Amino acid sequence: MTIALPHQPAELDAVIFDYNGVIGLQPTVPMWSRLAELAGWPADQLGPFQNAFWSAREPYDSGQLDDADFWTAVLGHLPAPELLTQLRAVDTSLWTRTDDRVVALLHHAQRAGLPIVLLSNAPHPVSDALDASGWRTLMTDALYSARLGMNKPHPDIYRNALAATGASDPTRVLFVDDRADNCQAAAGLGLRTLHYTGSPTDIEAHLRLTTIAA
Ligand SMILES: [Mg+2]
Questions:
Q1: What is the C-alpha separation between 138 and 162, in angstroms, rounded?
Q2: Distance between Cα 148 and ligand 1 center (Å)
Q3: How far is CA 120 from CA 11, 62, 78, 185, in A?
Q4: 153-165, pLDDT tens digit by residue?
Q5: CA of 89 to the centre of ligand 1 (A)
Q6: pLDDT per position as a tens digit, 35-69
């Protein structure tokens, strides 16, 4: 039997994870190119396509824009229904690959009895896809910006996440995110934070999880 125990002085009651850039891998250039091509952008215009994509993403993430609104903003015109379906599917596929090393740490934390809550800026189609992922069952809850009607770093989104952990003391809850501004906002509410830069050992150190053969 293998158990995982939190070591001093972590004393964590729960952990809140960002998705993309922590659990989720960033899209590759070929993945971006496929989406840009589908959207009708010239092959040498990937940068401008990404600028258009990101310029409309925040209101899409927060649920202010629906799928048609978002892609109309990116393309400059409303796509035909079939193309809209394809764009939504390929866009979603950009965000569903995970880092196996981080997923393994989620398993460790879950076995240690640590409540895990996902807090992701994601539009509805990505939220639905993530909810259907196998690792989702490791989570106590998963909160998505489009469903909450607000994005990180809005302070209220962290209050929602903290409530979802069931923990009452934010200083005993770790928030992990790859964006510094998201971490700063969480720290402002008293949460312990890890600005993740791609090294799973940093998460492991913060969770202070050690497997002990018993
Ligand atoms: Mg992220």
A1: 17
A2: 17
A3: 24, 10, 27, 14
A4: 999 999 999 999 9
A5: 20
A6: 999 999 998 999 999 999 999 999 999 999 999 99
